[in-house]
Amino acid sequence: MNARDEILSRIRTATGPSPVIRPVPRDYAVAGAHAPGAPELLDLLAERLRDYRATVHRCTPGDLDATLAEVTRGWRVAVPDSSAITVPGAVADRPALSHADLDGVDAVLTGCAAACADTGTIALDGGADQGRRALTLVPDRHVCVIHADQVVQTVPELLRRLDPRRPLTFISGPSATSDIELDRVEGVHGPRTLIAVVVGPAGTTGNNVHREQG
Amino acid sequence: MTTFLGMPHAPRGVGQLRGDEPFPAAADKALADRQLRRNLGHATATIRDKRARAVAEVADWEQLRLAGEAIKAATMARLGEHLIELEAAVTARGGHVHWARDAVEANRIVTDLVRATGATEVVKVKSMATQEIGLNEALESAGITAVETDLAELIVQLGHDKPSHILVPAIHRNRTEIRDIFLRHMPGVDPDLTDDPRRLAMAARAHLRAKFLTARVAISGANFAVAETGTVTVVESEGNGRMCLTLPDTLITVMGIEKVVPAWTDLEVFLQLLPRSSTGERMNPYTSTWTGVTPGDGPQEFHLVLLDNGRTAVLADEAGRSALHCIRCSACLNVCPVYERTGGHAYGSVYPGPIGAILSPQLTGIEDNASLPYASSLCGACYDVCPVRIDIPSILVHLRGEHVDARAQRALPSPEALAMAAAAWTMAGPRRFRLGERLLRLGRLLARGGRIRRLPPPLSAWTAARDLPEPPAQTFRQWWRTRPGDGRR
């Protein structure tokens, strides 16, 4: 018998001919208290991102270009090859930049697929404004634009917005480790600086506190 | 007995599921190491507080635990069907699925796959499954260098040490010890390196950067794999996982068969339970999911190795099978009063702590890890924190029963069985009992300061791990007769 058939046969023997399957109780919270894009969620997302040492900027759609230009001033910035989010002088990932090229840029600028306020999580799905995974991994700074309508409250809401057949990356703050005495330290192999630009309608841009990582 | 005896366990002589000595002997040495106890006490206290805060934020935590438990139980009941579905989904998306009956077969499959690429070095994402099967050693004997890229695994690998914790394999090391290991064993390290954790993390980044950018083959484990979509998930913090899962041409993932979950929506439960239980974060910094191969993005060759290695033997025991529900968060280690004092090495297996005490003996067969079910005070803290509600204390008791049953079948009864038989005989009649009580008082001769620390053989087995109180000068019956007033009614 080959390994596959043998393992499947062992499983059948182990579980017996008619295993009992109990229904899964799903009475945990799926939707949050706030609708996607609510001003409260933008505040919560900003707070949670900052709590894990991301830098957060708030702006309106009209201010976005100016904000990005200011944030990335003086940097060599890579962008996905067909992204609508860009800054003057950006290097497009076309043809695909080598790993060494990516290592040489100062920052990468992308959008996102969705974000979760409860956990301060940004999800990327390889969409046109996010590009392939290496692009948001190798550069040392990641500038990520989050639009209000992309912000949901809970983890279930986040996952239900995403297509699992696409390669997904969930990002909650800059790279970190708890491996030394179980204390969290930010900045290991992934981008050491995460800059989130949260774009909301006028009146929701709240306190634009800049918190650079120490 | 409920165990299906024909089901093969994890084979001997390969991998890391068995210790060199029983738990009490190994624990004795660990308890004498004051530095170890200080390091463990500090680290486990830190993480216990963080976990408690992260869990308290979630109003529906108990509902999530109940859902997690039920999803795992339902998955195990139809494990074969889910694995077949997973295989079909991964294959349809350009991945290759391999099945490995045990550690030996898994190591051979992975070694052959790496050889076929021509690479002599691979980068690795921290993975319990590959630790369990001893993959690094197997690759090494085939002339292939496996580079561990998780910071704690790197500390263990550089220090020629063994992992002692599921999440933080180097938890037994403090920052100064880690600095010293880096200074001694990390090529090109800054000689002025301090023990500031941030500087240590930077040293690891510099050490591994070139390897990530040039690696051709990566090996990972998996936290979850979704049967309906073929989506594999790795949960991590540092970005070493993303590097390995994204940059090389070939990715080989080794996954225990119990890691499959039926549906994508099941991840909405586990991605809430796991980070808060393990690192005490609302969400870990990075989670990657991928489904087969994506043209133009990430490895263009993907192999998924499905590993049994004793898991079907665990599945066959209805009373113990929920040990397979474990999502490797390590919360049970961090709250365990035994683990906090002995550390992970004393358990002898890559799975230490309460979960290891029920998982390792079931994977290997009880006779190969007979002391582990006793490595617990049965206080129940592990059950309280388990995000998928594994009733570890009940399984510990069940395995103790199995161990006793297994020994009862041997030709020679154990000293413990003899002692119990003698006690039963003594207690069966009042004269014998009185005589027994008198003999017990002889024990006073062995006592120092109110305690007996060592009994003569064969009773020494009892005092090897515990003291006995000094027997009282007077038995209850003697006291009854001599108490004021008339005892003889």
The CATH homologous superfamily of the largest domain in chain B is termed NagB/RpiA/CoA transferase-like
Tell me, what is the CATH class of chain A?
A: Alpha Beta
Sheet-strand content of chain B, in percent, reads 5-15%
Listing every helix as H and every strand as E from the N terminus to the C terminus, the arrangement of chain A reads HHEHEEHEEEEEHEEEE
Number of discrete helical segments of chain A: 5
Biggest sheet descriptor of chain A: 6 strands, parallel
Strand composition percent of chain A: 15-25%
Give the fraction of residues assigned to helices of chain A.
Answer: 10-25%
Poorly predicted ranges of chain B: none
Assign the CATH superfamily of chain A. NagB/RpiA/CoA transferase-like
The CA-CA distance between the termini of chain A, in Å, is 59 Å
What do these coordinates show?
The complex is a heterodimer of chains A (214) and B (489). With 214 residues, chain A is an alpha/beta fold. Chain A has a single domain (32-199), classed as NagB/RpiA/CoA transferase-like (Rossmann fold, 3-Layer(aba) Sandwich). Chain A is built from 5 helices and 12 strands. Chain A has helices spanning 3-15, 39-51, 64-71, 99-104, 155-160, and strands spanning 55-59, 77-79, 91-92, 107-110, 114-116, 121-124, 141-147, 151-152, 168-171, 176-180, 183-186, 193-199. Chain A is globular. The N and C termini of chain A lie far apart (59 Å). Chain B is of the alpha/beta class. Chain B folds into 2 domains: 1-410, NagB/RpiA/CoA transferase-like (Rossmann fold, 3-Layer(aba) Sandwich); 415-482, no CATH class. Chain B contains 22 helices and 12 strands. In chain B, strands 1-10-7-4-2-3 form a 6-stranded parallel β-sheet, with helices on both faces. A 4-stranded mixed β-sheet of chain B has the order 8-5-6-9. Chain B has a two-stranded antiparallel sheet with strand order 11-12. In chain B, a hairpin with a 4-residue loop joins β5 (224-226) and β6 (231-236). In chain B, α3 crosses α12 (267-278) and α16 packs parallel to α18. The longest helix of chain B has 23 residues, at 34-56. The radius of gyration of chain B is 26 Å and the shape is globular. The relative contact order of chain B is 0.14. The model of chain B has no long low-confidence stretch (mean pLDDT 93). The chains are: A alpha/beta (214), B alpha/beta (489). At the A-B interface, α1, α4, α5, β9 and β10 of A face α2, α3, α4, β1 and α8 of B. β9 of chain A pairs antiparallel with β9 (286-291) of chain B, so a sheet runs across the interface.
